Amino acid sequence: MQTLIEHARTFPDGISDQREQFTRLARGQKPQALFISCSESRVIPTLFTGARPGDLFELRTAGWAGHRPGTDEPWQTRGLGEDPVAVTQQHVLTQLDHLRGYPFIARRLASGRLRLHAWYYTVETGQALTSASGGGAFEPL
Fold first, then answer.
1. Vertex 103, ends 64 and 99: CA angle to 5°?
2. Closest listed residue to residue 61, CA positions, set 101, 92, 100
3. CATH number 3.30.930.10 is the correct assignment for the domain at 2-140
4. N or C: lower Cβ tally within 10 Å for the chain?
5. What is the H or E stretch that residue 103 is in?
6. Of 39, 52, 37, whose CA–CA distance to 118 is shortest?
7. Strand order in the sheet with 139-140
8. 62 φ/ψ sector (left φ>0, alpha ψ -120 to 50, else beta)
9. Domain ranges (residues) in the chain
10. 138 Cβ partners below 8 Å, 6+ apart?
11. Average pLDDT over residues 132-137
């Protein structure tokens, strides 16, 4: 924890050459995307997307795919003998289907004002996979 505290203390000095950018951010934000992901500490959307401050509005939740304590096995597969990656990817697609069920989401999708993307981040390789059609198969971006 001490390293986190120390970084927070020295952060203002570290961004001294970016004061103008942070001053603009203080006046308001216009993120490019809402990025909904699990609250998993190893999944850092700004890290693997290259997003800068103000680029992403992040919603992190434990409800996407929780892991059993002491393992990397998602809770949905506990005792099922299924491939945890496949089950987690299916869970992502199921959540997108739930989002599509909201009338205000459906209207924006139909008008082209909103697009939904299904991504799966692979911690050990750093690779982000996508299900472009929402049909199930996840492939590299």
1. 10
2. 92
3. no
4. N
5. helix 103-111
6. 37
7. 119-122, 127-130, 139-140
8. alpha
9. 2-140
10. 89, 118, 120, 129, 130, 131
11. 71
User: In one letter, which amino acid is 58?
Assistant: E
Identity of the highest mean pLDDT range in 36-45, 55-64, 109-118 = 109-118
Token pair listed for 5: 């505290």
The predicted model scores a pTM of: 0.75
Q: How far apart are CA 62 and CA 36, in angstroms?
A: 11
pLDDT at 87: 82
- The DSSP-derived string for 10-62 is HHHHHTGGGHHHHHHHHH----SEEEEEE--TT--HHHHH-PPTTSEEEEEET
Q: What is the DSSP letter of 120?
A: E
